[in-house]
TrEMBL record, chain A:
Cofactor: FAD
Domain FAD-binding FR-type intervals: 234-334
Topology versus the membrane: Multi-pass membrane protein
Species: Streptomyces coacervatus
InterPro entries reported for this sequence: FAD-bd_8 (IPR013112), FAD-bd_FR_type (IPR017927), Fe3_Rdtase_TM_dom (IPR013130), FNR_nucleotide-bd (IPR039261), MRET (IPR050415), OxRdtase_FAD/NAD-bd (IPR001433), Riboflavin_synthase-like_b-brl (IPR017938)
UniProt-recorded name of the protein: Ferredoxin reductase family protein
Keywords from the UniProt entry: 2Fe-2S, FAD, Flavoprotein, Iron, Iron-sulfur, Membrane, Metal-binding, Oxidoreductase, Transmembrane, Transmembrane helix
Superkingdom: Bacteria
Transmembrane segments: 26-45, 65-85, 105-126, 146-164, 176-195, 210-228
UniProtKB/TrEMBL annotation, chain B:
Classification via InterPro entries: FMN-bd (IPR007329), TAT_signal (IPR006311)
Amino acid composition bias (Low complexity), ranges on this chain: 33-61, 152-171
Entry protein name: FMN-binding protein
Top-rank taxon, per record: Bacteria
Region listing for Disordered, in residue ranges: 32-61, 150-194
Segments of skewed composition (Gly residues): 172-183
Chain ranges of the FMN-binding domain: 74-150, 199-275
Family matches, as PROSITE patterns: TAT
């Protein structure tokens, strides 16, 4: 008895040595973004000796909102440049939420900038607020690069409209995505009027240089990580569909073969954006998590048929070429800070959890998986999970609805009852938003600190 | 996975942005303390410092160029450079003027007028250009400081030189290209107004004046190309006629050619100013 205990402790110490928690750089990055915004405001402050009257106030409010919008627009694009530090350290889901938030905010700033500037110009020309439309038309005609800027703004508004919740749910994903790609054109078109008519760039050559550097480096990052890196990855690994396996009704696994796949550096818990070069599928890519630890010759994804794209995966034939971008995602072993880990999966959210369940280092009894599904038939990959649990002495629990459709009880008390030392665990969680929210609250109620609950959600 | 509160977030972001902008705007003074300080202690530029030594030369009291102090306006800095010969301003330039936004236009519109006026008036008592009040005021401020410097340097060398400054006031041949066709001032003379920049191109008016009356008016420059050819063909003859009939720049704009008309009137006014002075 004592020996087993000692052995357990030694093994645990062994695992602890392999745990090197890496903190997300999110806080540092957010501080840097704020510092940049302060710098932009300083530029305005420095170049504005005084504001004489109401008209000057309106014009300067227009300048401030314009400068901030120009600054944030570069960052909004940067957030989608697939920079590894953002995708793998901060987490793709979090960065996507930042992108959505800052995108909306920037669009509001652009609208405020146009309104205030045109109002100010109208007053300056001795007209009133009512002439703002005429003033806008005049400015587009007279000022350099304003025609381009007007087209770019129109595109931004279009992109914003297609991203509003109800609209986005009603249009196909591909349409939304391709409209969103117009952002690059819009950013290019609106860039030039900032340089040619922007007061601060006209009088301050240093500011102009800085602005070129900001937009230039974002462009370089986009070209490098969104175009060149995927080309290199796919040239090197040449992936193809090996087999398609039906796991449970509605859930399929796709096996993907290729060359030296371990060289991609993918970890359990991460995902790729997949594009299957089959008719009707080649124009859109979708993020699917690896459902098994990557092998040198084989990757596996497991997908539930919920959309057009995922339903078509079932019809993929072996040999279909695959174009992948990745690996992305930060919900990996790096996030772990404790010896004990609880994995919580809701439905098809099992995929990254399955990979982590297999690979997270841990002694017997350290790893626990809680799997929630509607019925026992929906417990995809159950046999594999049971085998892994047996093999490494991990605990496997499931929670399904009772035969009369009643939901299982996942509460703080119930969790503590099942895992008395739950507050000592790191928790990794993947599942639908409502489920994740409920479990999160139960976990917090059971005493798990928020910093040890690791969750990935692609719902905005 | 903290609960998200979209509405609270929107309200917070709006409130923070609006209050931040309002705070920044209200912290800016209404008139610039830096500009007044600069105006009170005129900057001695290299050009201005040359002149005290120039006092050794006998006749020329203050030759060369003099830069006025930088006047800061809401839209940017204005700085005037005067070229002086024999104590008279022969040329005025703005070496700094507001840029960016509508300022480019306003600078293009107002600076040529102001420099012309300067040479004509030989003082800082010049009219502001309407529509470019801030630039005009900054210009006058900088001009005044340049003139102060000019006088100061002239004063140091007054002992040896003759007081050129008081001789021959404005001659009417200021910045524009006025040329008398006759020898006497009562004779007919042709005066060309300053170039007025419009959105569609420059407009410049030439008038023939005899006995203080306009006998002939025509446009030596008018918008060209595209629709402008038509508009010019339509508007300019009418405007020429009106100018002769009215004998002043108070003429009606030709409807459908508003920009050309107002440019025409501007240039006409400057021609009349020259002819009168």
């Amino acid at each position: 008895m004592t020996t087993t205990l000692a052995g357990g402790r030694a093994a645990r110490r062994q695992t602890m040595r392999r745990i090197r928690p890496r903190r997300s750089p999110a806080t540092v990055l957010l501080l840097a973004v704020f510092a940049g915004a302060v710098g932009v405001l300083w530029l305005w402050w420095h170049n504005t000796p005084s504001i004489a009257d109401q008209n000057g106030k309106i014009l300067n409010a227009g300048r401030i909102t314009g400068l901030l919008a120009g600054y944030l627009m570069a960052l909004v694009v940067l957030q989608m440049a697939r920079v590894p530090a953002l995708e793998r350290r901060v987490g793709s889901d979090r960065v996507a939420r930042w992108h959505a938030m800052s995108g909306r905010y920037t669009l509001c700033l652009i609208v405020a900038h146009i309104f205030l500037t045109m109002w100010g110009y109208a007053l300056q020309a001795g007209k009133s607020l009512g002439d703002i439309v005429q003033q806008t038309i005049d400015s587009i005609n007279q000022l350099p690069d304003m025609g381009k800027a007007a087209i770019g703004t129109g595109l931004f508004v279009l992109i914003g409209l297609t991203s509003i919740g109800p609209v986005r749910r009603r249009i196909p994903y591909d349409t939304w995505y391709h409209v969103h790609l117009l952002t690059y054109a819009a950013v290019f078109l609106t860039f030039w009027h900032q340089i040619t008519t922007g007061n601060d760039f006209a009088v301050e050559p240093t500011a102009k240089t800085f602005w070129y550097a900001l937009y230039g480096s974002v462009t370089a990052l986009v070209i490098w990580y969104r175009i060149l890196t995927p080309i290199r990855l796919n040239m090197r690994h040449r992936m193809r569909v090996e087999a398609v396996i039906e796991e449970t009704p509605g859930i399929v696994s796709v096996l993907i073969g290729g060359r030296k796949l371990h060289r991609m550096g993918a970890e359990a818990g991460q995902f790729f954006r997949w594009r299957f070069l089959a008719p009707g599928m080649r124009f859109s890519s979708h993020p699917y998590s690896l459902s098994a630890a990557p092998r040198p010759d084989m990757l596996r994804i497991t997908v539930k048929a919920i959309g057009d794209h995922s339903a078509r995966l079932r019809e993929l034939t072996p040999g279909t070429k695959v174009w992948a971008e990745g690996p992305y995602g930060a919900m990996t072993a790096q996030r772990r800070s404790r010896g004990k880990v609880l994995l919580v999966a809701g439905g098809v959210g099992i995929t990254p959890m399955r990979a982590l369940f297999e690979t997270l280092p841990g002694a017997s009894g350290d790893i626990t998986l809680l799997y929630r599904a509607n019925t026992t038939q929906d417990l995809a990959l159950w046999d594999e999970l049971a085998a892994i649990a047996d093999d490494r002495g991990a605990r496997l629990m499931y929670a399904v609805n009772s035969p009369d459709g009643e939901r299982p009880d996942i509460s703080a008390d119930r969790l503590r009852q099942k895992l008395p030392d739950i507050e000592q665990h790191d928790v990794f969680m993947c599942g639908p938003a409502g489920f994740a929210q409920g479990v999160y609250e139960a976990l917090r109620g059971a005493g798990v600190p928020a910093r040890r609950i690791h969750h990935e959600s692609f719902e905005m | 996975m903290k609960k998200s509160h979209p509405i609270r977030r929107v309200v917070l972001a709006t409130a923070a942005t609006v209050s931040g902008v309002v705070l920044l705007l209200s912290l800016k003074p209404a008139s610039d303390p830096g500009a007044q300080a600069a105006g009170a202690t005129p900057q001695q530029t290299a050009a201005a410092q040359e002149s005290p030594q120039g006092g050794a030369s006998a006749a020329g009291s203050a030759n060369g160029t003099i830069d006025g102090a930088v006047a800061q306006t809401q839209y940017g800095n204005v700085q005037v450079r005067l070229t002086v010969a024999n104590g008279k301003i022969t040329k005025a330039d703005a070496i700094q003027a507001p840029k960016g936004g509508t300022s480019d236009q306003k600078t293009a519109l107002s600076i040529p007028k102001l420099t012309q006026e300067t040479v004509a008036a030989q003082s800082a008592k010049i009219d502001s250009v309407s529509g470019a009040t801030y630039t005009s005021n900054g210009y006058k401020q900088s001009l005044q400081s340049a003139i102060d410097k000019m006088k100061a340097s002239a004063g140091t060398s007054q002992g040896s030189g003759s007081s050129q400054g008081s001789a021959s006031p404005s001659q009417g041949s200021g910045g524009g290209s006025g040329s008398g066709t006759g020898s006497g001032s009562a004779q007919a003379k042709t005066v060309t107004g300053s170039v007025a920049q419009t959105q569609y191109g420059p407009v410049q008016v030439r008038i023939t004046v005899s006995n203080g009356k306009i006998t002939k008016a025509d446009a030596v420059q008018a918008p060209k190309g595209g629709l402008s050819d038509q508009k010019t063909a339509m508007a300019v003859p009418k405007l020429n006629q009106e100018a002769v009939a009215a004998g002043s720049a108070k003429i009606d704009s030709v409807s459908g050619a508003t920009y050309t008309s107002s440019g025409y009137k501007q240039s006409l006014q400057s021609a009349l100013d020259q002819a009168g002075g």
